[in-house]
Amino acid sequence: MLSDAELDRYARQIILPAFGGAGQAKLKAAHVALVGAGGIGCPAITYLAAAGVGRLTIIDHDHVERSNLHRQPLFTDADIGAPKAKIAAAAARRINPHVEAAAVVRRLDAGNAVDLLAGASLILDGCDNFAARLAVNRAALALRIPLLSAAIGAFEGQVALYEGWREGSPCYACLVGDDPDRPGINCAEQGVIGPLPGMIGTMAALESVRALTGWGRPLTGRLAIIDMVERRWREVGVAKDAVCPICAG
Length: 249
Ligand SMILES: [Zn+2]
Known about the structure:
By secondary structure, this protein is α/β, with parallel strands linked by helices. The chain contains ten helices and eight strands.
């Protein structure tokens, strides 16, 4: 299943008893759909590709702007104006030639989310607006695909994993409700310190690898909150909302 070159490439990962060759084979067979190739997407794509996820689909309609560069290190000045998804997919293939990376230069919305996300083993949502996050949540629930949700703003980041179709397990809307007009966290308005998305996107990649391969304590139904003003790290359980408009009943 894994070639000699792959066994060599992933040797330091395969040697981990909790991960092993079986974990590596699961990663190779996995397909992660990333919503957003921005501050969270750039490090997540980097580490998912390097770690050996077999297939990545990168969904982002945006183009690289100069004001992205302080926190989105897959892009350089030469990429300004180019579609983020295409540049990021090319970077993923360059990082690891064993990875298939496809770019989808489209805005994900409630009308196309199921089509764009169907077939993924896991969805990593690092997009920048609330309406798209709610559309991703609905699609993840309908398709029964684990949703790794990561968000940042200013000096704080959050990472959670939702499998709302499971008994007693929350969905994203159980935490935040389902009002698409609710103001979201937006880096353009709130600002963000450059290395923070690197931390949160990397953690999102690690928790995705964990969810796909199954070692240690899963993040399912839990929300990790990292505050880098005071350097505090907390984790709280997310309760399933018995009257959630999306996942209840
Ligand atoms: Zn719910």
